[in-house]
Automatic annotation (TrEMBL):
EC number(s) stated in the UniProt entry for this protein: 2.4.1.207
Transmembrane intervals: none
Protein name as catalogued: xyloglucan:xyloglucosyl transferase
Alphabetical list of Gene3D superfamilies matching this protein: 2.60.120.200
Keywords on record: Glycosidase, Hydrolase, Transferase
Cellular component terms per the entry's GO annotation: apoplast
Single GO MF descriptor: xyloglucan:xyloglucosyl transferase activity
Domain GH16 per the UniProt entry, residue ranges: 1-100
Domain of life of the organism encoding this protein: Eukaryota
Length: 175
C-alpha cells in the first residue's frame, strides 16, 4: 500500500491510500512527483495516482512558494493503513527493508527557505514549467481513472466522518 499526504503551511489531513497493482517487493519501480504552478501530480511507473490542481478554489491549500520535502519509509500501519486495524501486519516477515536505487531530483533547489529562489517562478526555462507539463494528456487521465477506480483504498475527499463538507480541492475536476 502506498500512502500520500500533503502538508501546506503545516496543515495536513489530506491522506490517500492506494493498493498497488504489483508487488513492490519483486522489483524496483519509479515513484515521481511533478510539482509546478498548475498542479501537483504523484506518479507510480508513469501512472498518475494523485492530482492536486492549483485553481482559485484551491489556492489556500496549494503548496506554492514553499520548499518540498519528500519522506519515504516503512511504517507500522496496523491502526490506520489496514482498514482500521482489521488486517494485521504479518510480523513473521520481519525485519522489513526498504531499498532505493537511482534516486534522482530534477528540481528548483531551495537553499535558504526564507528566500523564494528565482527558479520557483513560472518560466519556460525548466521542463516542468513548459505548457506540456501544465495538464495531463487524455491517456494520462485515462490511466489515472483506471488506477484510482480500481486501487484507491482510502481518500480523505470521500471520508464524511472527517469532512462533512469535502475540502475545496476535492471538488475540482482534472481540467
Amino acid at each position: 500500500m502506498l500512502q500520500t499526504n500533503m502538508y501546506v503551511n503545516g496543515i495536513g489531513g489530506r491522506e490517500q491510500r492506494m493498493n498497488l497493482w504489483f508487488d513492490p517487493a519483486e522489483d524496483f519501480h519509479t515513484y515521481s512527483i511533478l510539482w509546478n504552478r498548475h498542479h501537483l501530480v504523484f506518479y507510480v511507473d508513469q501512472v498518475a495516482i494523485r492530482i492536486h490542481r492549483n485553481t482559485p478554489e484551491t489556492r489556500s491549500m496549494y503548496p506554492s512558494e514553499q520548499p518540498m520535502y519528500v519522506f519515504s519509509s516503512i511504517w507500522n500501519g496496523d491502526g490506520w493503513a489496514t482498514r482500521g486495524g482489521l488486517e494485521k501486519i504479518n510480523w513473521s516477515g520481519a525485519p522489513f527493508v526498504s531499498t532505493y536505487e537511482k534516486f534522482h531530483v530534477d528540481a528548483c533547489e531551495w537553499t535558504d527557505t526564507s528566500i523564494v529562489p528565482p527558479c520557483a517562478t513560472t518560466t519556460s526555462k525548466h521542463w516542468w514549467d513548459q505548457h506540456g507539463a501544465w495538464s495531463l494528456s487524455q491517456s494520462q487521465k485515462d490511466s489515472y481513472a483506471w488506477a484510482t477506480s480500481k486501487f484507491m483504498q482510502y481518500n480523505y475527499c470521500t471520508d464524511k466522518g472527517r469532512y462533512a463538507i469535502p475540502p475545496p480541492e476535492c471538488m475540482v475536476g482534472l481540467d
